[in-house]
Amino acid sequence: MSNEQSKKIEWRYFGRDSNGATVFEIYRCPANGKNIEFQRHEDVQLLLQDGSWRPNMQRVLTDEIYDGKFDETIDEISEEKAMEYYQTWLAGEWPGRK
User: Cα–Cα distance between 40 and 35 in angstroms, integer?
Assistant: First the structure.
């Protein structure tokens, strides 16, 4: 997962499961003490299959928060867990957006 900015910023990672049993997308945002709703839109990013991060993904998670399908405290995962999902998905079928 390459991104020059990621070397300068500490990140929080989230596994999106829409209240289901299976995580199917990984998101991140700066670990700056702000909840996702208060992050800048471009700072909430989605992990893509090629290892890059798509910015401007805040709306997806805020919609899920308002629908009761996402909770920052429950859905937050470690960077190591995010990388584990990524490697597993690369070895099999990619579950999320490409």
Answer: 10
Count of domains forming the chain: 1
Q: Quick one: CA torsion of 75, 56, 97, 83, rounded to 10 degrees? A: -50
pLDDT tens per residue, range 25-62: 999 999 999 999 999 999 999 999 999 999 999 999 99
CA distance linking residue 80 with residue 66, whole number of Å? 28
Which range marks the domain in which residue 68 is found?
Answer: 4-79
Summarised one tens digit per residue, pLDDT across range 64-77 is 999 999 999 999 99
Q: Is residue 59 part of a domain?
A: yes
Question: The tokens 């190591």 sit on which residue?
Answer: 80
Strand partners, 12: 29
Q: Which structure tokens are listed for 1?
A: 């997962």
The answer to the question of residue 89 being in a domain is no
Measured CA to CA, the distance from residue 10 to residue 18 in angstroms comes to 25
